[in-house]
Amino acid sequence: MDFNVKKLACGAGVFFTRAVQFTEEKLGQAEKTELDPHLENLITRADSTKNWTEKILRQTEVLLQPNPIDHTGARIEEFIYDKLDKKLPSRTTNTELLGQYMLEAANEFGPGTPYGSTLITVGEYQKRLGGAERDLLQASAVGFLTPLRNFLEGDWRTISKERRLLENRRLDLDICKARLKKAKLAEAKAAAEHELRVAQAEFDRQAEVTKLLLEGIGSTHLNHLRCLQDFAEAQATYYAQCHHHMQDLQRELSRCANSISTPHSAPVVCPDPVSSAFLSGPPSPGASVSSLSSQRPLAMEQTQLPVTGTRKAKVLYDYEGHDGTELSLLADELITVHTVPGMDPDWLIGERGNQKGKVPVTYLELLS
Prior knowledge:
Elements: H1 2-26, H2 37-64, H3 74-83, H4 94-109, H5 114-182, H6 186-215, H7 217-261, H8 285-295, H9 298-302, E1 311-315, E2 334-338, E3 347-352, E4 355-360, E5 364-366
Antiparallel strand pairs: 1-2, 1-5, 2-3, 3-4
Helix pairs in contact: 1-5, 2-5, 2-6, 4-5, 5-6, 5-7
């Protein structure tokens, strides 16, 4: 007990002495040891990295989750799962919820009515858009947000701790310098010189430790660069999927509108949406290709379309043809593509062996 009291009193004395030195420096009444210019630059760079990482992280969270506190208690749920160190279950997105409401409304209004059937069509596509959004949220959280958060909660805390130690060592060094200047007797000067040498050695050692940590900010930038590329790729995939879904939806609605405008027709029901397996996983190689080849009109097989330029293309994502005029694709395969006069610029004619059909441009990487 006596030892603890002495240690506490000693610590309080050191704290008070440092506080006095710090105050006198701010008032210009005491000299301050300046850090090495290289170390100062590293500190400035680290502070900038920390500040901008916080801003980018916060704004990305706002972009991906504009209204985190909603009627489902999302923020509370995330907090509980984080404290329990468990994975947060996948949550329905707002777009998926909108699609579900449309489907429920269609059942109540009657799926055989024009309005009901259109609600079913639009609702199914809203659910697919929501699924693509959920994939983007998951990919961004794992590949982008988590590394930024780990830096702020891990590496930066270590750096901050070592910087505080460096500041304390600097204050101790300047206190020893001031004592040496005030010492009059030879014995007091010798003791002050010894304290100064010890303080200088501790300061230099802590400066090296801090410098090594700050130089690691360069590796942090490289890691964040890779994460940023992954985030951009996830966004590109998401927007490509959204673009294609909306193109499909427009075609479905156009067919529905044409059916409604046709006179003396049977009760109008919009065509069923394409299969939801479109983005849920890779299609079976035999089934999709064989069914496509069996459904393709004979005229497509026999007619040679005028070619305006043939190129090789790499398929970026799996794609399942929606009718006999489209060609199903598998990710990473190579096909030959070309266009024809008057064709929709969002589509190309793709060829794989004896198979031919339309393919969406957004699913391809054109090769030279």
